[in-house]
Amino acid sequence: MILLAWWFLRHVEVEGPVIIWSKIMTNRRNPAPPAATLDINCDCKEYVIDYLTKSFPVRLMQVFADEDGNLRSEAMSDEEGNPVFCPRAIAARDALIEQLCALPPIATALDAIIEHFGTDAVAEVTGRTRRLVLGRDGEQRLERRGPNANVAEAQSFMEGTKRILVFSDAGGTGRSYHADVGARNQQRRVHFLLEPGWRADNAIQGLGRTNRTNQASAPLFRPVTTDVKGERRFISTIARRLDALGALTRGQRQTGGQNLFDPADNLESDYARDALSRWFQLLYDGKLEATTFANFVERTGLRLENPDGGLTDNLPTIQRWLNRILALPIALQNAIFEEYLGLVEARIEAAREAGTLDQGLETVRVDRFTVTANELLRTDSVTGAETRLVSLEVARHLRPLRLQRLVRMHEIGSPHAIPMRNARSGKVALSVPARRLIRDDGAVIERRRLLRPLKSANWTLEALAESHWEEIGVIAFTSAWRAEEEEAAACPVTERVHLATGLLLPVWKRLPGDHVRVTRLVAEDGQSIIGREVLDVDLAAIAETFGLSGVRGPLVEQIGALVLASGKPLCLASHDPLTVKRSLVGGEQRLELTGFSPDRLDWYKGKGCFTEIIRYRTRLFVPMSRASKILQSIAIEP
C-alpha cells in the first residue's frame, strides 16, 4: 500500500478529475496525545513488530527418527520442562526489530495523498472522524470532522471545487461520483484502484460509483500495482471474480469485469492452468533460467516428484502455486513470473491468431450508425422472439496515439525505444521491448512491440530483421508521426458492420463459428445496438443456411480487403479455380493466389501480379496497393 502511494504521487499526470478508491489503512490504536505539538507515527509498524516478537522462531528444535525411520523434529525442553531457546535466533530477532524501529515513519496512502496535494484539492469520503493535517506553518494538527463531512466533501467534488476524491468502502455506499449531466463538474473521471480488496461485489460497487447512467462521459479505470510480479496474484483474483460475477448476474462477462483486465491478467483461466502444467514439466527438465527444480522445491516446500522419480500426477493447483510464490524473494518472484507469463501469453497469442480467444462483450463508441438492411433469420415458435441480421453503416473518428503521450510513456531514441520507419510504406513506429514468449519445448522467443498511431503489434526479432522496418533519427520520426497523427484524426472513417441480434441461442451454432465476437455499438446520440458480429465473407454462407434472398456475398473488388481483414480464404471466379488467401511472408502480410495454372504465369504477370520462389516453389502474389483492380481484371477476363 505504501509503494502504491509512492507510485501515485510520482507518476500520476491526468487532466480530468481524479478518483481514488481504496480500503484505507490507518492506525487507530494510538490516540492523539493532548500536546500542543503533535508528533504521531501512523505507519502501522507495530503490527509487524508484534508479529516478530510473538511468532519469530527462537526455540531450539531436536531431530529424531519415528517408528518408520522418518526424520522428524520437536521443540526442546530442559530437565524441568522449560523451553530451550536459541541465542542466535533471539539475537537475529532483536536486531531485526531494532532495525525496523529505526526506520523513518512512512505515511499511509491516504495521508500521503492529502499531504501532497493539500486538503483544499482532495475531497476525503472515508468516514474518519479525526485526521492529521499539515497547517500552513508546516506543523501537524489534529482536525476533527463532523458527521456531515462526507456529504460536504462529495458535494465539493461534484461541483468542481476539489478535483481529487478519495473514498473507501465507507464512502462508496449509496453515493455517486460520476460525470452527471446535472452536475457542474462533468469532466471525465479517472478512477484509480489503489486497493480494491478481495470481494468482487464490493469491487463492482466501488467501480459503479463513477460509471452510471445519465453521465456526460464514461470514466477511465486504472488499477494500480507495483513492479512486484507476485502482486499479479491479487489482480488475478479480482479479474476472475469480477468475470464470474458478471456471468452470474446478467449473463454478460463484461457486466462484472467491464473489460478492465487483459486475458493474461486472469492467472486462473484455462490458458494459465495449461501453462502451469507445462511450467512444471520445463522446471523438472531443467529448461528454465529463473530457478532449478531442487531450489524451487526447497524454497516452497511443494512435493512435485514421485518416490520412484518423475513428476507427480497430483501437481499443486494454480492457487496453491501462486500463494507459495508470494513467499519467495522479490527478485526470484519476478524471474519466475516472467517465464510463466511468457508461457501464458504464448497460448493467448495463439488463440487470438486462431480467432478462438473469447474477449467477452466489447463496447465500441462511434459517431453514428445507420441501418441499411434488416433481414429476419428466425422466429421462435413459442415466444415469438426474433433473430435478425442487421447491416449497419458506421461512421467514427479515429483516435490516434498522440506524440505527446508517446513521449511521456517512452524515452524516444533510447536503447529501449527505437524509432523506425518502413522502407516500403513509409510509415513509422516506435520499437519498445515486449515480453518474450516461451515455447512448450522451453525455447525463448524474443519480441519487440511496434507502437504506431492507430495500432500496435508484437514482432519476433527474427521477423523484424527480415522485414522492411529500419531505424531512423528522432527528428525524422517525430515529424512523420505528427503527419500520420494529423491525417488519422482529420478524416472520419465509414465502415460496414453486420450484427446478428435478438434471440441468438437457438441459432448460435448455425452461425460461422471461427469468428465469435459480441459487440455493442454506442452512438453519440445515445442509440445502441448489441449482437454477434458477422463478417462480410460469411454473408453468403448465412444466406444459404437461412434461405435469405436479399443477402449477397462480397463483390470482387471487396475480396482483397476482406481476406486481409479476416484471414479467411475466398474463391475467385476465373478461368482457373483461384483462391485468394492471406499469407505471412518475411514478417509482412500478403495476398496470395493459389490454384493457378503454371502455363499462365505470364498472363497473371501481365495483369500486375508478381511471383517469388520460396523453398523451391513458385508462389503468386497480388500487390496490395492495386489488389482491387487486379482481382477485377482477373475475374472478368478468361
UniProtKB/TrEMBL annotation:
PANTHER family xrefs: PROTEIN STRAWBERRY NOTCH-RELATED, STRAWBERRY NOTCH-RELATED
Which named protein is this? Strawberry notch C-terminal domain-containing protein
Q: Where is the Strawberry notch helicase C domain?
A: 109-363
Q: Coiled-coil stretches, from where to where?
A: none
